[in-house]
Design a protein that fits this description.
By secondary structure, the chain is mostly beta strands. The protein has 2 helices and 17 strands. Helices cover 10% and strands 35% of the residues. The longest helix is centred in the N-terminal third of the chain and has 17 residues. It comes from Pedobacter frigoris.
């Protein structure tokens, strides 16, 4: 009888061992606590690292607010708020909206303009008068109410990239997103896979995809040194903006397993995340 029981159970043992394991459930890590700027460091042009000139970056009602009410005029004091940790393989999500009026002296192109800088340089290595960190800028734009103006565009301070197999040296290229006028909340996500592929999403829709993020080339080379990862920062460019969410899923542990990485990414992007108003 014992032998018969073992024989009967064997098929179930083998069947169980062949069942595919479910994909891991991934959780978003919140990068700010809604109370203060702990874990974040400001770097504003013409000012020292960690000097939050004019209280530009602040927490108001649980949101990161970029404001200029203590400025007399902008004077090209472009700023960035850096998170304490660098990343290489990740999915980052931000929910933002533009508010109020642009500060006096802000450049015309910076109207309803901000950004999330990824794969960026260490802020400790920025010069005091440096305007932008060398990085990949996911440009956030709001509509002006009189035409099309996409968001989640790509700009390249000190960098370049490959699109459809060609090196692109243009400073900015537009995404395929629609225009977001007024003070509505918008969700932008960026999937960054080391020095291979970066994808921009707006309210769950893919709007831009490119490859091989790299530094500007030197000595006449066509391509520069590949950028595997780096800092993440939020931008101040003269127009008030709020961020109610800045969250990330770190994918580094899957970087050396392409099959598992694809499975995890497919699982993540199967869900369409849209900002609620």
């Amino acid at each position: 009888m014992l032998r018969a029981a073992i024989i009967i159970c064997l098929p179930f043992i083998f069947l169980g061992s062949s069942v595919k394991k479910p994909a891991p459930k991934l959780k978003w890590q919140q990068l700010f606590n809604g109370k203060n700027l702990k874990d974040w460091t400001p770097k504003i042009r013409y000012h020292d690292l960690n000097e939050n000139y004019g209280n530009t970056f602040r927490i108001v009602d649980g949101k990161i607010q970029v404001n200029y009410d203590q400025y007399t005029k902008f004077d090209e004091q472009f700023g960035h708020l850096f998170y304490k940790k660098s990343y290489s393989y990740y999915l980052i999500g931000v929910e933002y909206r533009f508010t109020g009026d642009q500060v006096k002296g802000g450049p015309g192109w910076a109207f309803r303009n901000s950004g999330v800088m990824i794969h960026g340089q260490d802020p400790a290595n920025m010069k005091k008068d440096q305007d932008f960190p060398n990085s990949i800028e996911v440009q956030l734009l709001g509509g002006a109410g009189n035409g099309d103006r996409s968001t989640a565009n790509l700009c390249t301070p000190g960098t370049q990239f490959v699109l459809n197999g060609k090196v692109i040296k243009a400073h900015c290229i537009e995404s395929r997103s629609k225009t977001f006028n007024g003070d509505q909340w918008v969700r932008v996500e960026v999937l960054a896979l080391g020095d291979s592929t970066i994808v921009h999403y707006v309210n769950g829709e893919e709007v831009l995809r490119y490859d091989r993020p790299q530094k500007d080339p030197v000595k006449g080379a066509a391509e520069g040194e590949l950028i595997k990862g780096g800092s993440i920062s939020l931008q101040s460019e003269s127009h008030p903006v709020e961020f109610r969410k800045v969250e990330i899923i770190d994918l580094e542990k899957y970087a050396k397993d392409p099959k598992k990485l694809k499975e995890v990414v497919d699982q993540l992007m199967a869900e369409k995340r849209v900002a609620k108003q």
